[in-house]
Write a structure and sequence with these properties.
Layout: H1 2-17, H2 22-43, E1 58-67, H3 70-88, E2 92-103, E3 108-119, E4 129-140, E5 143-153, H4 159-186
Antiparallel strand pairs: 1-5, 2-3, 4-5
């Protein structure tokens, strides 16, 4: 009798581990699938997602996003990368995070929400572009994960910025010229 009482808990544990509950198996399979997607997104990430390129003529930032629509994933990844570039160049951001957590003896529950607003009104990102070989798309089930690397050339390497600055100087000169001639005529 004593042997039976000792074996009963052991049999119960073994039975629980080998459950044939189809819903429990489904939940386990879904959890494993999600873990594989996370592992794959890390394994498939380009090197520049972990280590940005170094350059004396450009500043780099990266971003990643996932969506069921390829263009949406692309747009979100670029928005993240350009937003990070903006912040690096002196932009501002405001962030609001709400976290509610409750604990009991049996379980913990957490609800969280985060909203971030990036503002780049005073930051000029003229010349920023997707870097060479700076886009990679990976399938995650029925969704697309896009990795993107953007670059902002600096100094003489930023041809578009130089052109924009030269154009601005021409506009200032065109506005100032009539006033300068009037000043000369008054003297």
């Amino acid at each position: 009798m004593k042997k039976t009482l000792l074996l009963l808990p052991l049999v119960a544990v073994m039975t629980a581990c080998g459950t044939t509950d189809p819903y429990g198996k489904r939940a386990d399979m879904e959890r494993e699938r999600q873990e594989r997607y996370v592992e794959r997104s890390i394994d498939k990430a380009p090197k520049w997602m972990f280590e940005l390129p170094n350059s004396t003529s450009a500043v780099y930032e990266n971003g990643t996003a996932v969506s069921g629509d390829w263009m949406m994933a692309d747009a979100k990844a670029k928005a993240t990368a350009y937003g990070k570039l903006c912040m690096l160049a002196g932009g501002t951001a405001s962030q609001q995070t709400k976290i509610y957590r409750t604990d009991s003896e049996a379980t913990s529950t957490e609800l969280s929400e985060q909203a971030i607003k990036t503002s780049c009104k005073a930051v000029d990102l003229t010349g920023a572009e997707v870097a060479k070989d700076g886009i990679k798309v990976v399938q995650e089930g029925n969704r697309y994960r896009v990795y993107v690397l953007v670059a902002l050339p600096t100094g003489d390497a930023n041809i578009l910025r130089k052109y924009k600055d030269a154009q601005r100087q021409r506009e200032i000169a065109a506005q100032r010229a009539p006033e300068a001639f009037k000043e000369m005529e008054r003297q």
